[in-house]
Design goal:
alpha/beta; three-stranded antiparallel sheet; 36% helix; globular; Aldolase_TIM; tRNA-dihydrouridine20 synthase activity; tRNA-DUS-like; DUS-like FMN-binding domain-containing protein; tRNA processing
Length: 449
């Protein structure tokens, strides 16, 4: 009884940065972390469905969103930010249009935070103004350690250029936060020493931001390494002294776990990353039943992905995370080439009709490996059968000329980053201009930005 009473007294005397009219208050919130490829719209909607208070989208590069056009999809009423490819393809073919960012204005109202990758105050402001009317917070990524972010001076590289990071936040607060009445926040990592971390946090909370998220790992650390929390209370207190909300991130596994950690360290909120990627029902409390069976969650995920016309390559990537790897269905899903395939192979027959419509819209209908009668023979099986038939007929197959295959254009790049091996083939992924365009489809670890 004494602890809640003391917290109530302290809260009434602690300064608080005002929350803008269209912004969000991070206090008391358990939220979905920004994750490359795993934070697209269907994942966010599922997290909200199962109890997430706020959701962060995946890091999107400033230059990718700056030139985007905004439109409303007439079929599902989602807001889509699109742009046309400026490279690749044949001259006689129309340029490919790609969806960079997608928002569900009804279900994400008051709950969506847009995370930006940037290394320039000018670009940050230009990019933020594109999405500011449709989101409820702008978060600057200064914590991602991956080369696709740091190579451009973004992400964790900003921790080495604090003057630039401060200037970015101040520009966003002044030119976006105020005019659009939304909050500006930042996500950082631990520095080498507590003193260095404290010095940085003190500078950041004086920029006018409403929230700061601390990922309790240093830049060289990877997700498999245990989060370091011995600096967390100091960071929380530093934020609170300036009236800024502090959200913690790192090894938060469930809503109950998040609430316990918030209580222990005095943090205002907590982010869930990897656990939400694998099963977003982790946002349910134990009292509400806790984690749901994977099949129920996957069905809901597929239903949302189909409805919002999510990129198939992205959907398949998340299915591989969510389907139980020990179940036979895991291998079946890996073979899927379309939404109809996934629904048939997982025996979600009631979703097949909608899946086929989505496949038509996304141009996947001719890639399916299944039909109403069941799985179609694989290309390898067909080749073997043709080879056996040829041998039986006394024909030689040694000198048979292989049909030439014309490769389509690769993903559009917004800078000079090199391609990453194992990325989705052109047959399974549309052009992606977000930070995730440079991330391989099959990753052993979550990239939390």
């Amino acid at each position: 009884m004494l602890r809640p009473l003391l917290r109530s007294i302290m809260a009434s005397t602690t300064p608080r940065v005002p929350i803008p009219a269209n912004g969000v208050d991070y206090r008391g919130k358990v939220v979905l972390a920004p994750m490359v490829r795993s934070g697209e719209l269907p994942s966010r909607l599922l997290a909200l469905k199962y109890g997430a208070d706020l959701v962060w989208g995946p890091e999107t590069i400033d230059r990718a969103i700056m030139g985007a056009d905004r439109r409303v999809n007439p079929r599902n009423k989602t807001i889509e930010f699109t742009r046309v490819s400026s490279n690749g393809g044949r001259e006689d073919q129309p340029k490919k249009e790609s969806v960079i960012y997608r928002i569900d204005p009804e279900n994400e109202k008051g709950k969506l935070v847009f995370q930006m990758g940037t290394a320039s105050p000018e670009y940050a402001v230009q990019a933020a103004k594109v999405v500011a009317p449709d989101v409820f917070g702008i978060d600057v990524n200064s914590g991602c350690p991956k080369p696709f972010s740091t190579s451009g001076g973004m992400g964790a590289a900003l921790l080495r250029t604090p003057d630039k990071l401060v200037s970015i936040l101040e520009a966003l607060v002044r030119e976006v936060g105020g005019p659009y009445q939304i909050g500006i926040s930042v996500k950082i990592r631990l520095l080498e020493t507590p003193e260095m971390t404290e010095t940085l946090v003190k500078r950041l909370v004086r920029t006018g931001i409403t929230g700061l998220t601390i990922h309790c790992r240093t830049t060289p650390m990877r997700p498999r390494e245990r989060a370091i929390r011995d600096q967390l209370r100091m960071i929380v207190n530093t934020c609170h002294d300036a009236g800024v909300a502090c959200v913690m991130n790192g090894d938060v596994t469930s809503r109950d776990n998040a609430l316990a950690l918030m209580e222990e360290y005095g943090a205002d909120g907590a982010m869930i990353a990897t656990s939400a990627e694998q099963n977003p029902s982790c946002f349910r409390t134990g009292a509400d039943g806790g984690l749901l069976p994977w099949r129920e969650v996957v069905r809901s995920y597929l239903e949302e992905s189909i409805r919002v016309e999510n990129r198939w390559g992205n959907t398949k990537y998340l299915l591989n995370m969510m389907v139980n790897s020990k179940d036979k269905a895991y291998k079946d899903v890996n073979k899927a080439k379309s939404y109809a395939d996934a629904c048939r192979l997982l025996q979600f027959d009631e979703l097949v009709s909608a899946a086929q419509e989505a496949d038509q819209i996304l141009g996947l209908q001719d890639r399916s490996i299944t039909s109403e009668d069941g799985p179609r023979p694989s290309a390898v099986q067909n080749a073997k059968e043709n080879n056996e038939s040829a041998k039986a007929a006394g024909q030689s197959t040694k000198h048979k000329k292989q049909a030439s295959v014309q490769k389509g254009p690769g993903p559009i790049r917004t800078n000079s980053r090199t391609s990453v091996p194992n990325a989705p083939s052109e047959a399974e992924a549309e052009v992606d201009l977000s930070a995730s365009a440079s991330v391989p489809q099959q990753q052993s670890q979550t990239v939390t930005v």
